[in-house]
Amino acid sequence: MEPRAEREAAAGSPPSLFELSGAVVSSAMGTLEREVWALPGQILQGILPLLNIYYLERIEEPALKKGLSTQPIWHKLWNDVMKIRPPKSENIKNWRKKFLETFFSNVLHGVLDVSSDPRLSDRRFSPLLHSSRHVTQLTICNMLQGVAELTAERNQRVLENLAGSLRTLKFRHLLTSDLSIRQSLSLLLHHLIHHGAVSQVSMCSWPVPDKVLLVLILSMSAGFWHPGKTLMHQGSPCSLCREESDAQGLLTQENGALLGSNQLCCSSTEQSETSQWGDSESRSKKVQAASAVALQEADPDSQASIELSRSSSGTVKTPVLCGLRSHPLQNLACQDVSCKVPPEYYIKGESSPSLPKRSSVGPAFQKPYRRFKTAVGRKRRCPRRNRRARADPEDLYDFVFAVAREEEEMAESLYESNAQERESIDDWAPSPADTPSFEDVGCTEGGSVGIIPLKAACHFRSISTLELFSIPLTGDTCRALGNLLSSWVSLEKLVLSYNGLGANVFCILSGLRALSHRRDCSLRVVRVSDVFSHIPSVELVWSILTAFPRLHTLSVSFDLKNQLEGNRPEGHSSSEAEIPESCLEQLEIRFPREPLQTSLLLPVLKASRSLQQLSLDSATISCPLEFGLLLQALKECNPGLKRLSFHDVNLADYQKEVLLLLQDPVLQEITFSFCRLFESCTAEFLSDIIQIVKRNSTLKSLKLPGNRLGNHRLVALADIFSEDSSSSICQLDVSSNCIKPDGLLEFAKKLESHILQRGGQIKFTHLRLFQNWLDQDAATAQEALRRLRAVCSVVSNTWDSSQAFADYISVM
């Protein structure tokens, strides 16, 4: 017995009877699952840590009913399996979701081997299928790993789960991929965006983007998709499209001829932006005609191409294509009896032909078109057909431009006919001056920057947030994005960060200008940031607000000023146009060390009477008069302004103006960040600040980081909370102010005395102390922090001031 006892002692304490029983039960969960769910809570609590992730996830609801939480078990699983600390782990409330979402991604990308831990594998469950319904964010990297796996037939249910749960789709560090992977990606995006719930697409860190792949992602995010050979390659139409089409019933044919002499064919007026089809016979016939041509043009050599046969009445007979509710050829126009089928086009001036066109001006008309009389003495022009070989239907990069080119030519033809007859057409606004040729769109010097909106002829569901970080955008991709933006009515937030736009920013503006004319557009937030500014920051703000006055939030940020002055397209001077009254509520401008440009900024403020938050960063103020005009405009034109921020703006010589701002009866938050306020100030200036803040009952947040407060000024600020103060300050930020531990301790003691005098009644709740010299005396600093945390919430960090000073010296 002794040798056995020694072996047990060497191996640790033997498992208890309960643990042995729990291990047996967990191994037989396949047959005992229901019985385990019915166990009392105390027994069930001991079994939970012994279950694998599949049964642990399934038992979540019974455990909650018994008052048990599985979060500690999921947290331990994370530590054991992932072995890393996630960012902001203290804010994670649902470790179950966090674990299963990361588990799905790691298994998909081959990072995690489920056989490495017995808690991760079970022969009755599929890792991807089991965890997919918990995934709300998915990242696709490099060579699009995992895309082919998700679109495989065996993972159809996984894809269905993702379509219901996924909200954010991210692309990082993408590389060029082959055609088969792009086809798989297009199917994945079709399921997750067009038929799913994805609302945000973010792309970042793509130094040399593949144009075809980039425009594919952008186009499908905007709701446009030309299936082409993708569905042919799969051998059958999209099952989701087919189910939706079947749910709406069989489409019937119309009794009249569709493509008659001198007659325009258009979509029904009841067609919605969400691409929902009605039940009218006229619409169904047009859809059938469109689907036939779409399949034929998408793959002219395919055996699946549909033969068009025209009866004596001119009726087109064809089966229904999947996704007809939003197919590109939904709207067609024919202007001549000789046009037997919708004509094809190619982009003028390109070496290779583009895709056949899939859209027309149909949606611009909200009523059936009237028949046009042929102009006397002039032969009617029919849009030219493409006699070159067709391009690859998968080239969506060409497709985006093709749609815009067709709309332009159709518009010009209709306009010329109308001009000859002196007839007016309902709901047709653009003129030739408003619809420039596509070759002139956008980004060349002296060229026009108008963009013909993409009428949503094949519009599936689209996303609401688009973010592009560190992806160089050329003139071509900017034109493509501008075209997409022109009809992207579901887009609510657009973020373009470090894309090297330069003069191409006017392509984006043209798209925004066209989008602003859509009553149902949803765009409210635009953020643009880059290294170099092609035009002055305020002028770009002016241009954006002129193009899209319905914005609620606008942020423009540049690091450096472009030294190539005068190198911008003509005809874009913002001073030539007046800003209409805008809905702007938040405005952020980061100047690349350039003047404040009050002459341009003041009209922006006057047009933004709903402004609530203004942030000015790295601007240069030339004289007190300029600053005074700014303050006067804020007082007169922006009565609802609640938050005002200055960052890296030298205000050392503008003490009078600073005091006026602190007296404002409306402002609730004021930030003077790295503004050198106390660089050469007198004691009177600090005393004035304290007295003004004490009397201001509206101001709730005062942020003074990086202003060289030092110890003695910090101690003086404690008087803001004295017994005779009516201040409502809740938040005080004194980060980066050369504060030492002894000064902080004295501030804490003085604050405590003021609180005692006020009977413990104080509104002060938050204190920020980042990057101060608290490491010089750790004991004193800890004592000061202990006292302060008894009064308010203190946010600080462990900062090596000596190393920071050495870094500062090294770059001097």
UniProtKB/TrEMBL annotation:
Protein name: Leucine-rich repeat-containing protein 41
CC annotations in GO: cytoplasm; nucleus
Signal sequence region: none
Tree of life domain: Eukaryota
Organism: Gopherus evgoodei (Goodes thornscrub tortoise)
Keyword annotations from UniProtKB, A to Z: Leucine-rich repeat, Phosphoprotein, Repeat, Ubl conjugation pathway
Zinc keyword on record: no
Membrane-spanning intervals of the chain: none
UniProt entry tagged with the keyword Iron-sulfur: no
Single GO molecular function: identical protein binding
Region (Disordered), start-end ranges: 288-310
